[in-house]
Amino acid sequence: MKNTVFALLFACTVLALYILAGVAAPTHAAAQASRVEVSFTYTRQRGIGSNQFAVWIEDTQGRYIKTLYATRFTAAGGWQRRKQAIPQWVKQSNLAGMSKPQIDALTGPTPNGGALRYYWDGTDSAGRAVPAGEYRVFVEATLRTENRVLYTAAVKLGEKGQVTAQAQYFGSGAAERGMIGPVTVTY
Hints:
- This protein is of the alpha+beta class.
- The protein contains 5 helices and 10 strands; from the N terminus they run H-H-E-E-E-H-H-H-E-E-E-E-E-E-E.
- The chain has helices at about 1-20, 25-35, 70-80, 85-90, 100-105; strands at about 35-45, 50-60, 65-70, 105-110, 115-120, 135-145, 145-155, 160-165, 165-170, 185.
- The strands form 2 sheets. Strands 4-3-2-6-7-9 form a 6-stranded mixed beta sheet. A 4-stranded antiparallel beta sheet has the order 5-1-10-8, with no helix packed on it.
- The protein is globular, with a radius of gyration of 21 Å.
- It starts with a helix and ends with a strand.
């Protein structure tokens, strides 16, 4: 019994010394250095078939890493009724293979409008840290029915910088082009 108490006390002392020496600090510092902010102004549109968007991360080979946000309507089943609702995100995220708790964790109601910010902490969808390097940030929005926009920006995780994402529009909906943008990514 005396040996067990001594061993436990020794283990706690060693752990405390590691913490005081800053051995645990690199994990926190790495997480702080890996923070990526995606920001844009969102203006809610009138009418059905609009106001759906998603923000996500991929690696340079086009492999899905993590969704930062997706509108609940599309993610919770709306994509099956409206195939044109943020189709690239639906495909890349493998939304059809996600469980309800996984979908709930990345979705929210469609915002009313204003300045929006979404953050990536440098982890994948399972919460594991990804290595430093280049990644792609995507913001896809269904502007109205078949009209959509896809913003893309490259970031270097582990470095500092700021970029404006490039927009690619699909369809002819010039009237809705003010729904999202410009998209700025700070890393």
